[in-house]
Amino acid sequence: MADPIITEVRLTPILVTDPPLLNTQGVHQPYTPRLIVEVVTADGVTGVGETYGDTKYLELARPLADRLPGHRVTDLNGLFALAGGVAVDSSRVDNSVDVGGLRGVQTADKLRLSVVSAFEVACLDAWGKSAGLPVHGLLGGKVRDRVEYGAYLFYRWAEHPGGAGETDDWGAAVDPAGVVAQAERFARDYGFTSFKLKGGVYEPAEEVAAIRALAERFPGQPLRLDPNGAWSVETSLQVADELREILEYLEDPTSGTKNMAEVAARARVPLATNMCVTTFAEIPEAFTTDAVQVVLSDHHYWGGLRATRELAAVCRTFGVGLSMHSNTHLGISLAAMTHVAATVPHLDHACDSHYPWQTEDVITDASKERLTFTDGHLVVPDAPGLGVELDRDRLAVLHRRWLDDDGTLRDRDDAAAMRVAHPGWTTPAVPRW
Ligand code: GKR
Ligand code: MG
Predict the structure, then answer these.
(1) Could you tell me the distance, in angstroms and rounded to a whole number, from the CA of residue 152 to the centre of ligand 1?
(2) 398 lies in a domain?
(3) Which residue puts its alpha carbon closest to atom 2 of ligand 1?
(4) 370 pLDDT band (50/70/90 cuts)?
(5) Is there a contact between 4 and 68 (Cβ–Cβ < 8 Å)?
(6) Which residue segment(s) compose the domain that 195 sits in?
(7) Whose CA is nearest to atom 6 of ligand 1?
(8) Å from CA of 254 to ligand 1 middle
(9) pTM of the entire structure?
(10) Distance, C-alpha 354 to centroid of its chain
């Protein structure tokens, strides 16, 4: 195999249809920004990657893309060194948390990593296609043939406020019965057996009731609740106590490592996080104070697929479990998650994925189908690269939507979307309860 040189990089920002999913900050906007990265090699091979598409990510992706022609797709360490040289506008990181707090601390490094990770995935895809090897093969080889995912349940409305965007056929889920009906559909259509409820939306007692209803309907099956840090230490301990017999883990009940450690010390339920441990710098305090028992990795902000494996090694060393976090994403990211998950031996919990909520995609698999979950699992692709094909017509449609937007939807803002329904709404301070 010739060592493939990058000759061109294409960046395509898109807006993806998203349902009105509720969280503690507000509600999803009708469309979510994502960025599709393509690297093209001198041999005419194209590799694809995907990441967050908000303006602050685009601003970093453009100068990085400009530096890549002439770079080898196999030189991933060099890619990260190039990214390290891209300056981050400090006004983009002067708020201490990302997306109103849903994804933890916001630092210049984390912002850079969230961008370069999509380039890493695109390089791995191109490298794999050139070498005739699947991405998991470039990461050391798969240790499983299927990766398990869980159903990601959300309180939600039937429609976006003001009837904006698209309407799907899921209907509203605003109480225990609605949550159970949603879970039943996920179980029926995709065979999921683990269920995570996004909480922090209603009073804790209501969310406890929803989890109890799920436990009654799916006895003995893994259940999780994630209020995105909306509760005080005392509320977290109370919920942990009430649900101690039925939760697999409680995810980010409270904000900050110190509070998590306080809850972990007294709760009889393991704690998971994608908020207080989102960078390597946050690991020492969290692991030495036993603040978290499971880290939910996200290859976008941890810095790619190889960094995810480094994180896995650190977690293994400290006896901390590992699984995967998800935000709204398309099939390129799902394929990347699946390849890396396939290579991590101690992946002990079903991974999160928003993917079933997405009605649109920009890829198909080798058989021209959308990626599908069977028995709650995705089969690990063995085709070269990620094993997905870019659908250029779909990409063009979603990019056109981004071009036509007046700028209001190009940055995720769940509080702004909530204000359409509740004009006085501001991002709630934590602890909310
Ligand atoms: O999409 O509303 C959402 C989620 O709340 C997401 O933003 C979170 O970052 O899924 C994430 C989580 O597990 O905390
Ligand atoms: Mg979470």
Answers:
(1) 10
(2) yes
(3) 23
(4) confident
(5) no
(6) 140-386
(7) 327
(8) 14
(9) 0.97
(10) 7
